What does this fold into?
Amino acid sequence: MDLPQYAYFKGAIVPYAEAKVGVLTHALNYGTGVFGGVRAYKNDENGKLYLFRPYDHYRRFLNSCKMMLMEFDETPESLTQLTIDLLKKSGFSEDVYIRPLAYKSSEMIGVKLHDVEADFSIVALPFGKYVANDTNAHVTISSWRRLDDNVIPARGKISGAYANSAFIKTDAMRSGFDEALVLTQAGHLSEGSAENVFIVRDGVMITPSVTENILEGITRRSVMELAAAELGMEVVERPIDRTEVYICDELFMTGTAAQVTAITKVDHRPVGNGEMGPVAAKLRDLFFDIVRAKNPKYSAWNIEV
Ligand code: PMP
It folds into this structure.
């Protein structure tokens, strides 16, 4: 992976090589960081880059900071502006992924959240697909369990919680799967290692509720709105049993990195007829047009760089 040229670090845009922390940094030792993942897409008709829902991403980011007792004099708007400044300085003219990170920056020993200094950084880099087989993914149900809200809240997008995602993803990939779905301690479907999940049963689109130890995804919220408004579908949030995944008509995942990824096989069982279904296909078409600022109805989601 090519490293970025610039980073926003300690209050300024600096060459990426200068964006470094010491090994005693609290977040590096204890996982006390929180992060975000935002994409900017290029519209190939006018050549411009557009951030997708950055205010929503930064609202969630600041809420994650709040949960971890990190306070910054920033707003979703100011963080979006910093991102635009960084993208302009970097001169990107392709699709990019943006990684804001807030971290406990004190170089010290001591496991706690209070009385520890915090800082934040932003980096951006060119980015394509995250899940290679995004129209025909084969996933497994992980033997790992999702972190519970009372262990490390998935809602908080907390760096340390991603050790859980890393266990899930690596075991899945080393067993030849594209990704894994993970269950809650109670045995309900939660999400993917870095994606929210949806099933379609009898024309109803169903996704685990926000109380199922999921990250409250921006892509999740977007496709829920699109399914209702554009496909006229009933969209339901409720607990989903494991075996519903084996008998559903369609299954797909959503995320900033994974976008809308159709799952066509789970643990060697075909989903529906074993091919990407019509709901996932239509949502993908809508989504890819919208993120590239080609659908004026949803232009409020596109922030020009
Ligand atoms: N769940 C997890 C665990 C994630 O890391 C992500 C990626 N941010 C998502 C869901 C999807 O969220 P979003 O659509 O906001 O990217």
Remarks:
- The pocket of 4'-deoxy-4'-aminopyridoxal-5'-phosphate is lined by residues 37, 165, 191, 194-196, 215, 217-220, 254-256 (CB under 6 Å).
